[in-house]
Specification:
The chain contains 13 helices and 11 strands. It is α/β, with parallel strands linked by helices and 393 residues long. It starts with 5 loop residues before the first strand and ends in a 12-residue tail after the last helix.
Length: 393
């Protein structure tokens, strides 16, 4: 029997990714505002394994036109998959990081791992999909991530992302089939949908903001853990490769403004890396400036009203720059790219235009939810001032 007050969200879930945990928390919060009990569903065994996904990377890189990288990756992949003992300190650091992320997940997310979606249509009154990289073909996908087990009228998409500018030809027919039952799809970036526009039966696509942008500084500050290490420093947070020009820019920036750097990335590790999403929010909250190639790094720099210096992401994840470009265009942050910021002016910022634009995008998001039968409950309406982003001067 369907539950009238329980909703299931099919999510992309990463055990150690700040943005992933925060966007899943925001999506849960939005649906709780609509009066639902919420289950975050992680469908296991869908598509390909992580090992198979790694094997796909050379083809992905050739498609992206990364010269030589595809061939080099073949040899690198073989080395990575060989059984080698880990350095104890790295092993301990990784274990600590997993422990910290696990604590956040148990407190705020409570994901439920399911082997299949059989029975889900009867267990929930509604199904949701998203957000984050739930439809990224590089991770391996199938119809269950499009809720093909449920009636499309009972499914709503909440800013799902593909993470690419287009759908490759080998995936087009699958996406066409999976999306054919929807009349409207709300997505986080729009470029990929152009690949489907000429296909028969394509739904209407509506551009939505990332769910993290539906909440203001006060909302996020409540779950942030203040960071002594980041206080007054430049937070350098990158997911892609740090190029020599990036390093030189940060060096010149810190020298000119007499600031220190807190370096956070998978390649650096150490104490800052052994943190969870609450700690990450605390780092952004306490830092003087954010230098990042991270989509959610840029979002939280904006929400916490911090000077943002944005890097184009390079390396294997470079294709994900599309969602960042959408973000900067919509929130008037295009002038925050490193290449257009002089060192002496880099810490000056004014997000007033972006803040005003965001108010409209939030209204559009709620209108989208309303069209799909999801509305704030009266108790949340009476507290709606909590969700209003203050103008950043």
């Amino acid at each position: 029997m369907k539950s009238g007050h329980r909703i299931g969200i099919i999510i992309h879930y990463s055990t150690t990714n700040y943005g992933n945990h925060l966007v899943n928390y925001a999506t849960r919060s939005l649906l709780e505002e609509c009066g639902y009990e919420v289950d975050l569903l992680v469908v296991q065994g869908h598509g390909q394994s992580k090992l198979a996904a790694l094997k796909r990377l050379p083809r992905k890189l050739r498609r992206l036109g990364v010269r030589g990288a595809a061939d080099r990756l073949l040899g690198r992949f073989q080395r990575l998959t060989e059984a080698k003992p880990q350095v104890p300190s790295i092993e301990a650091s990784a274990a600590k990081r997993q422990e910290e992320f696990g604590a956040f997940s148990r407190t705020y997310l409570k994901p439920q791992y399911v082997e299949s979606t059989a029975g889900a249509a009867d267990a929930y009154s509604r199904m949701c999909i998203g957000s984050d990289q739930i439809w990224n073909y590089d991770y391996g996908i199938n119809g269950s991530l499009f809720a093909d087990f449920a009636s499309p009228s009972d499914v709503v998409t909440l800013s799902p992302s593909v993470g690419h500018e287009r759908i490759p030809s080998e995936w087009l027919r699958s996406y066409e089939q999976w999306l054919s039952g929807f009349t409207e799809v709300g997505t986080r970036e729009i470029e990929w949908t152009h690949s489907l526009a000429a296909l028969p039966g394509a739904p209407n696509f509506t551009l939505l903001v990332d769910p993290t942008l539906m909440y203001d500084l006060e909302f996020w500050a409540r779950i942030a853990t203040p960071s002594v290490d980041a206080k007054g420093k430049v937070l350098l947070y990158h997911l892609g490769e740090l190029l020599p020009q990036h390093t030189q820019y940060v060096k010149d920036l810190t020298e000119h403004h007499s600031l220190d750097v807190l370096h956070l990335s998978d390649t650096v590790g150490g104490a800052p890396w052994e943190t969870n999403a609450s700690d990450f929010l605390g780092m952004v909250q306490e830092a003087s400036c954010i230098v990042t190639d991270s989509y959610h790094g840029a979002i939280f720099a904006f929400l916490f009203n911090k000077p943002l210096i944005l890097l184009e992401r390079h390396g294997f994840a470079g294709a994900m720059n599309t969602r960042t470009r959408t973000l900067t265009e919509r929130l008037h942050l295009a002038n925050r790219y490193m290449t257009g910021l002089s060192i002496d002016k880099a810490l000056e910022h004014d997000y007033t235009r972006g803040t005003e634009a965001l108010q409209g995008y939030r209204r559009e998001y709620w209108s989208y939810l309303n069209r799909h039968g999801l509305e704030r409950t009266p108790v949340h309406d009476s507290q709606s001032n909590h969700h209003i982003l203050r103008a950043n001067a």
